[in-house]
Amino acid sequence: MALSIRLLITSSILISQIGWTDYALENFCPVENPMSFQQKRHILRDHNFYRSHIAQGVGIHPEPNKLPGGSNIYRLKWNCRLERLASAAVRGCLPEPTANQLYGQNYAFLKDLSSAGFESLFDTARDTWISSWCIDSTVINNNAVVFNGKAQAQSFANIIRGNTTSVGCSQKQCGQFMAVACLYNSANIENGTTIYELGEQCKNDSDCSAHENSNCDEQGLCVVQQESQEVEDGYSFYSGNKHSSRRLIRITSEKRIVKKLNELKSNKMCSVNTTMADELRSMVLRLHNYRRSSLAKGLVKRIHGNPLPSATNIMKLKYNCALEELAHTRAAQCLLTGNYSEEENGENTASIHQEDAVTFAGAIRWVT
């Protein structure tokens, strides 16, 4: 069985196949209940929204609970190891979370939300974590906002803790009960621990000093750039704005850009076609077969949460170079509908704005 895929990008992408190393990672996290790209993006966008507001000194809570502006506040990235721990934390939908001494943990046990979609479920959990905040949960000294140990405010403190750089979340439905958990790569914040440093949002890379090899982005958040185990084990999905591609060019050296281009020049699968790299072909194939395998195993859920029945005789896809050439010809027309007469071949078409996918790898993830 052959595979055909066409990508229609609504506006030009500045760097084609160059992107954040973590952004282009191809696989879903190997966990019991893996989160989708859209779910991860929603969670990261929410977390980094609150963190950027703190960095900019914009009030999240009204007076008298408004917090002062902060410096050295880092943008969160997705981490598969933390998602794996979060998946274990929600197994069984326990009313209370299992203690975790190594990582910060936010946990919500929700009732009568079995018909809720993921975003509303996570938003309900997030609102629970945020609404319990009050100004007497902190001590503000000359240099920092310090946590004073109030248990009900610990969850929001975990969300905005400045030197945290990674998060992983999971959710589970158990009948009429639901559980949501997010884990962070800093230990649970305790009495006397700094939540974040007082100051102004970063304006230059030199303002980001909590972690080595850090850069400052347009939202006043610091970004860790080194490729540590934390990055290799996870994903980073940029929440996106119109300057994102330009920012990538600015913070990425010419040497690194050349290195990334060389990494994506492998073209042995379909050597006649020069418009795709083998890494992207493999990514397309893996994502398609992952979804087909999930359907065969009965792991695909409907909108209301009930799974589709398992299936038999679902064939594993192979890559077909002739179909790639046909798909490229069609995609080059940038039309969502057209005079496609090859009735023997199925066709999927999608249009993705560059703010939602700044690389072809990101675009593939959106449509697969």
Helix/strand structural class: alpha+beta
Computed over alpha carbons, the radius of gyration is 22 Å
CATH topology of the largest domain: Pathogenesis-related Protein p14a
User: What's the helix count?
Assistant: 10
Order of helices and strands: EEHEEHEHEEHEEEEEHEHHHEHEH
The tally of beta strands, per DSSP, is 15
Q: Could you state the CATH homologous superfamily of the largest domain?
A: CAP
Number of domains: 2
Proportion of residues in extended strands: 15-25%
Broad CATH class of the largest domain? Alpha Beta
Pfam families: CAP (PF00188)
InterPro entries: CAP_dom (IPR014044), CAP_sf (IPR035940), CRISP-related (IPR001283)
Keywords: Signal
Protein name: SCP domain-containing protein
Describe the structure.
α8 packs parallel to α10 (360-367). This protein has 10 helices and 15 strands. It has helices at 37-56, 80-90, 118-131, 154-160, 229-232, 244-251, 254-263, 278-296, 321-331, 360-367, and strands spanning 2-3, 8-9, 70-71, 77-79, 104-111, 138-140, 144-147, 166-174, 177-184, 194-198, 214-216, 222-224, 234-235, 318-319, 351-352. The radius of gyration is 22 Å and the shape is globular. The protein folds into 2 domains: 2-8 and 276-335 and 349-367, no CATH class; 23-251, CAP (Pathogenesis-related Protein p14a, 3-Layer(aba) Sandwich), CATH 3.40.33.10. The protein is 30% helix and 16% strand. The strands form 5 sheets. It has a 5-stranded mixed sheet, with helices on both faces. Strands 3-10-7-6 form a 4-stranded antiparallel sheet. Strands 1-14 form a two-stranded parallel sheet. Residues 38-191 form the SCP domain. Keywords: Signal. This is SCP domain-containing protein.
